[in-house]
Known about the structure:
Largest sheet: 9 strands, mixed
Radius of gyration: 19 Å
Number of strands: 11
Number of helices: 11
Distance between the termini: 33 Å
Shape: globular
Amino acid sequence: MTVTRRRFLAATAAACSLPRLAAFASPNASRDVAWLADVQRPPAVVPAGDAPLSPLLVDDANHPITTRAAWQARREQIRAWWLEFLGEFHVGRPATPEFEVIEEDRRDGVVRQRIRYEVEPGLPVEAYLLKPQPLPKSCPGAVALHATTRLTIRQSAGVEGDPEKAFGLKLAQRGFVTICPRCFLWSDDLSIAYQKHVDAFKARHPGSRGMAKMLYDAIVAVDILSRVPEVDPTRLAAVGHSLGAKEALYLAAFDDRIRAAVSSEGGIGIRFSNWEASWYLGDAVRREPLAHDHHELLSLIAPRAFLLLGGDSADGDRSWPFIAAALNVYRLYAEEIPGPPRVGLFNHRQGHSVPPEAEQRIYQWIEAYT
């Protein structure tokens, strides 16, 4: 069967989006993180110089949007524009690919399996699948997306590398089943340059941007995770740092199964980091003014929980306008969703890193809102 990536995403949304708004309220919604108000407070000074963001709550006739119904129509317009911008992605595969276990080990109360599956026909990819032991009959799940590193999935699964970025291992130790998929920029042969992988992808799928591939692969990982018998498919999260933060943002925006997400130092603004790279959005975003930016993706995530982490490198105080814009959309759900909006920015001011306080907040956020 051959389907467009757009149709696949539409089918995913039809199957797993949560139009029943009560489903957006986390099981732990009555136990918001203690610091929620802090991450919704504007910084004392927002750095000047960035172009103002386009308005979210304005319709085609330039009338203000004040109702959920009017917002839903606007939301569909935003979503459709981004899917068109990302480009068609034709791929044939079963709804959820089967996987094989390549190796297995145990560490600190976690069973860690290296698995292989076909993300596209004839194109295998590896991931780590981690399960807490003992494994509950029903538990939440999380997708942990690795940063730019030759360690790839070994980092997020805690096999080696910076322990503060071992999101998959540490969430498994907290009772989550986690999957750590490898980004398409790497393969088993680490001598292959990024661009060769990008060129091969674009030869297979002309007109698609690299971010479309990253998004698609992350959705496949969610498919696999949600089919693990012990995983509650209504309680899924996503987290990533740097490269992985970009993927987590797009995954949360276009897959409504993700109920809570944390994006660490990915650069929320298109001008904030290397979004022009061929493996992300391409150089068109630098050559010409783009009327759209990632505050629109944040609006697609509402009212689900989203935390942006910055260190005044890729993200920080200059990221605040994106959160402020999204907050206005989140507030449209106030009557249906109890409690305050669950979106915010935490700036740890320690550069492109995951310092201890930021790492702690990642797990607190995901545990509270998944």
